[in-house]
Design brief:
heterodimer, A: alpha/beta, 6-stranded mixed sheet, 25% strand, B: mainly alpha, elongated, binds adenosine-5'-triphosphate, binds magnesium ion
Chain lengths: 253, 259
């Protein structure tokens, strides 16, 4: 457990009613790392991401961000801390009463650190990065699923957070747009030194953006290694997942 | 039998934790009041959205409630031999004290309270409230406080309007049905009219507005489970706030009028 871990997840357990999801899970993430989390649908990847930003609290165990135990961070401190993290929700979770530009600019407007003109420029720049400069005045209901995902991404990066959580950033995108998003994620992590944690089922994207792959299985970290180690693994469970086979040790529930 | 007791136990634990959650939200609402200056635009928006929704329905209800009150009072007067000039007094009291505040509040709960729950409930199940939190916005300040304040301001406004329309309804009946002159009716009304009653009616209305806003937001926040969940909490929002309005109204009556 080295000192510069930005995120330390220690013995975290979480169940919903009688449904255990995370079971004494441990995961440490260093600043600047680019992690991809893989695992079967329903295994708790999204739940894990939400723990990092305290949208969900663990039943047992601790989540630390920059050394702070999230359980003890509240009120104004929690708001300040959350502004250092950006999250792209699996469902995009756009504010449907606001235009695309207002969605992307909301965090900037509320932090009151920029003028209206600056916000407009930043919004335009971020929308450009995700290839949606033309959609600024549209409402979420007028967008396709993939476009919504990209607006969600633009919103997540709007405030230039130090840590980015991506929940399936390329799901629902065509291969070309997916590549644009992969490049953007790589760009953010390599040039801006953003720590990134991405959940994905898309192994092409995983190998492209990750310098570390983590697989969740039955509430725990089953595998943790570099992309090369992932490709070469002997673990039948991991192999079954990355090669995408219905036959093997993983039972499809 | 055992199962029944267990289910009952579970139900009461749920109700208690729901009540606890409600008071937590009410506390956070009070704490967010210090941010009113930052949130004037949001409050103004909500007043605009909330404000205009209920007026047409309140107008129709009030005119008929005023009319039927006058009719019934006149009918009772005939039997007990009370002079018809007292009509303005009797109807005026009932309308200003009870009918206008309670009916306006219940209509408001059905339209605005339900609307708030449906909106916030949808935002909850589509993770929009999580998204707000994730970009460092306190959803109580951003969503709850402007709505509750809008309700607290608009219900009293609606009550003033309802008072006026209901008295008009009663006036029409007393002119057309009872053959009173407008002067007699209005003089009777004026004699009985006390600014204190009117003010109490408005304070009551403000409290009702707060109940409707807080219950509406709370039910929205605890929504789970998609469209069906939104339907459930929306209904629950109207039922809970209507019942609370009636209970509080009775408590007010007991506190204000010593019999
Ligand atoms: N708010 C919630 N209430 C109850 N159960 C939940 C909630 N959120 C998640 N779960 C449950 O937790 C488990 C893990 O869900 P999660 O969304 O993390 O899966 P996932 O790994 O992200 O799957 P996918 O790849 O399909 O997105 C599921 O069984 C789900 O039913
Ligand atoms: Mg998920």
């Amino acid at each position: 457990m080295s000192a510069e871990s930005v995120i330390q997840i220690t013995d975290v357990s979480k169940s919903f009613g009688r449904n255990p999801v995370l079971d004494e899970l441990n995961l440490n993430i260093q600043a600047g790392e680019s992690i991809v989390i893989i695992g079967q649908s329903g295994c708790g990847k999204s739940v894990l991401l939400k723990h990092i930003i305290k949208l969900i609290e663990p039943d047992r165990g601790t989540v630390r961000f920059d050394g702070l135990d999230l359980q003890e961070v509240r009120g104004r401190h929690l708001i300040t801390l959350r502004r250092r993290i950006g999250i792209l929700f699996q469902s995009a979770a756009l504010f449907d009463s606001m235009t695309v530009a207002q969605n992307v600019g909301l965090g900037l407007r509320e932090s009151k650190e920029h003028t209206v003109d600056q916000i407009e420029d930043i919004v335009h720049e971020k929308l450009d990065l995700v290839g949606l400069a033309d959609a600024a005045e549209k409402f979420p209901a007028e967008l396709s699923g993939g476009m919504r995902k990209r607006v969600g991404l633009a919103r997540a990066i709007a405030t230039d957070p130090e840590v980015l959580l991506y929940d399936e950033p390329t799901t629902g995108l065509d291969p070309i747009t997916a590549d644009l998003i992969n490049n953007l994620i790589v760009e953010l992590s390599q040039h801006l030194k953003v720590t990134s944690i991405a959940v994905t089922h898309d192994m092409v994207s995983a190998y492209k953006i990750a310098n570390r792959v983590v697989m969740l299985y039955e509430g725990k970290v089953r595998f943790d290694g570099t992309p090369e180690e992932t490709r070469a693994t002997e673990d039948a469970t991991v192999r079954q997942f990355i090669t995408g086979s219905a036959r093997g040790p993983i039972k499809v529930r | 039998m055992g199962l029944g007791v267990q289910a009952l136990g579970r139900k009461s634990i749920q109700s208690i934790s729901k009540l606890g959650g409600f008071f937590v939200l009410a506390g956070r609402f009070l704490a967010s009041l210090k941010d009113i200056p930052k949130s004037l635009r949001l409050i103004a928006e909500q007043i605009y959205f909330v404000g205009l929704k209920s007026f047409p329905l309140i107008m129709i209800i009030s005119i008929f409630v005023g009319a039927v009150s006058a009719w019934q009072a006149a009918y009772q007067f005939k039997f007990i031999g009370a002079p018809p000039r007292l009509l303005g007094q009797a109807v005026g009291k009932a309308v200003v004290m009870e009918l206008a505040p309670v009916l306006s509040a219940i209509v408001f709960a059905g339209r605005v309270g339900a609307g708030i729950t449906a909106e916030l409930g949808t935002m909850r199940v589509t993770e929009q409230i999580d998204a707000l939190e994730s970009i460092g916005i306190n959803p109580v300040r951003y969503l709850v406080m402007p709505r509750v304040i809008a309700c607290m301001l608009m219900v009293p406004f609606l009550v003033i309007f309802a008072n006026f329309i209901a008295i008009m309804g009663a006036l029409i009946v007393s002119i057309v049905g009872v053959d009173l002159t407008p002067e007699i009716f209005l003089n009777g009304f004026k004699d009985s009219f006390a600014m204190k009653d009117f003010n109490n009616g408005l304070i009551k209305a403000g409290v009702f507005g707060m109940i409707i806003g807080l219950v509406g937001c709370y039910e929205g926040f605890i929504t789970t489970g998609g469209a069906q969940g939104v339907g459930k909490t929306t209904t629950s929002s109207v039922v809970v706030s209507s019942v609370l309005i009636l209970i509080f109204n009775f408590v007010f009556a007991v506190l204000l009028f010593r019999i």
